[in-house]
């Protein structure tokens, strides 16, 4: 039979004959594995997922289950690596989790040999050449699997799929089946947590990471303000009317400040602002646009920061109890300090008054340009440097003497006082906002 005849008729005959014989011989093994999965992982025993098949027609792929349904504090599923069990690792290493796919082959959804069925969300990111992989039935094994299994980068894996379609023959299929047996026997190229080894195809091809410069300042600020609630923004420098000018200035200096952006095509969908200072690489801000959440943007930025940090000591601040705090802990960060944010409302019954805060000319210029700056409040016990945040808040450390706090209240009664730190309310009318954790990794 020539190659064309094999592709049209012989391949399906081989699939039915081999899969039928394999199921007839291996049913005791199938029942044994099913019993182990049921005992160790519970129900369901089989993992079912819709995948695109030949010509993109969807089908349900069958595998033995290898992961739990463990979730974090917010109810989101943990990463694949955290949900993969000891039994699951053994099933993947031995490829026994793939045995139920013989049923897919027998009913015509799959072939013994062919491009592996990928997720439907990857399809828009195939090149024209790579789309040819869908002109044949997907396989339990394929050319890409025997060349490198999970260790091949996406470009090489998909190129191997296209090459397989172009050179499809009985001889090649038999060779791939034999090579697969050898690869499985040696567990060669198996990655227990494949998503940790490489990005999803849709993330890798959609996202482009690049340094941000002054020309991106407006887009950065717009993205950040769209990503957080106004109440949270009011406690940060983003309350300042000129924060875009601030970013344009610091990103143009090329000093301790830097920012990395994530782009989908030419649209900024995430960014990380990093500050290298005092032997630490500090993640000042990280944000993902609302429409791009759940696509791995934040993870890609975080991992890029890990790789590029100039210091082995990494630090960041995050709200206590937020899902991100648990996410950072799972990546080795530990809480070092915590600071409660208290807000004291404006004094009642007073009209707007001009501020009489002593400040250097440089600080006044910053305040006018950015909408936030430092200033000095004087009480009986001496001066204290405080910060202006936008038009509404004055930022003060909780350790300040009570008379300085009252002096600030008297000088700017129209402003709220944002008091940072302290386990007890600084005044009876103080409102507790949230607790900020400072987390570090790699600290001595």
Which secondary structure elements does this structure contain, and how are they paired or packed?
Layout: H1 3-41, E1 46-52, E2 58-64, H2 80-83, H3 86-94, H4 101-106, E3 111-113, E4 139-141, H5 143-148, H6 154-166, H7 170-186, H8 194-197, H9 201-206, E5 207-211, H10 217-227, H11 230-233, H12 243-253, E6 257-264, E7 267-277, E8 280-288, H13 297-308, E9 314-319, H14 323-329, E10 334-344, H15 361-370, E11 372-379, E12 382-389, E13 393-397, H16 402-411, E14 416-420, E15 431-441
Helix pairs in contact: 10-12
Shape: elongated
User: What is the rounded distance between the termini?
Assistant: 69 Å
Number of domains: 3
- Major sheet attributes: 11 strands, mixed
Helicity, in percent?
25-40%
Task: Please count the beta strands (DSSP E, at least 2 residues each).
Answer: 15
Report strand %.
Answer: 15-25%
Number of helices in the DSSP assignment: 16
Structural class: alpha+beta
């Amino acid at each position: 039979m020539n190659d064309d005849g094999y592709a049209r008729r012989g391949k399906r005959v081989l699939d039915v004959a081999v899969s039928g014989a394999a199921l007839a011989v291996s049913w005791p093994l199938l029942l044994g594995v099913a019993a182990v999965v049921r005992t160790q992982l519970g129900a369901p025993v089989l993992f079912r997922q819709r995948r695109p098949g030949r010509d993109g027609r969807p089908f349900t792929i069958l595998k033995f289950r290898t992961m739990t349904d463990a979730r974090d504090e917010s109810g989101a599923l943990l990463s694949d690596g955290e949900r993969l069990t000891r039994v699951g690792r053994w099933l993947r290493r031995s490829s026994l989790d793939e045995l139920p796919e013989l049923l897919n082959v027998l009913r015509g959804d799959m072939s013994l040999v062919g491009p592996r069925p990928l997720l439907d969300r990857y399809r828009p990111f195939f090149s024209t050449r790579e789309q040819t992989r869908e002109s044949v039935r997907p396989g339990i094994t394929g050319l890409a699997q025997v060349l490198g299994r999970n260790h091949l980068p996406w470009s090489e894996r998909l190129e191997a799929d296209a090459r397989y379609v172009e050179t499809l023959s009985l001889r090649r299929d038999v060779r791939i089946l034999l090579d697969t047996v050898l690869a499985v026997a040696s567990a060669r190229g198996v990655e227990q947590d494949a998503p940790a080894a490489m990005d999803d195809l849709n993330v890798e091809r959609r996202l482009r990471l690049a340094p941000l410069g002054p020309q991106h300042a407006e887009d950065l600020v717009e993205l950040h303000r769209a990503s957080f609630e106004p109440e949270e923004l009011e406690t940060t420098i983003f309350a300042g009317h000129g924060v875009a000018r601030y970013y344009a200035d610091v990103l143009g200096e090329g000093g301790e400040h830097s920012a990395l952006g994530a782009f989908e095509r030419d649209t900024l969908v995430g960014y990380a602002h990093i500050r290298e200072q005092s032997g630490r690489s500090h993640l000042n801000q990280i944000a993902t646009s609302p429409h791009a959440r759940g696509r791995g943007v934040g993870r890609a930025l975080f991992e890029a920061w890990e790789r590029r940090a100039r210091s082995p000591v990494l630090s960041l601040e995050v709200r206590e109890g937020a899902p991100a705090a648990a996410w950072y802990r799972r990546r080795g960060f530990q809480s070092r300090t915590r600071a409660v944010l208290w807000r004291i409302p404006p004094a009642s019954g007073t009209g707007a008054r001009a501020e009489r805060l002593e400040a250097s000319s440089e600080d006044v210029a910053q305040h006018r340009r950015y909408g936030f700056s430092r200033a000095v409040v004087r009480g009986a016990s001496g001066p204290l440097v405080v910060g202006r945040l936008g038009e509404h808040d004055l930022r003060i450390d909780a350790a300040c003497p009570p008379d300085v706090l009252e002096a600030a209240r008297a000088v700017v009664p129209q402003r709220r006082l944002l008091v940072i730190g302290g386990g007890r309310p600084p005044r009876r009318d103080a409102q507790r906002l949230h607790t900020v954790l400072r987390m570090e990794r790699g600290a001595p």
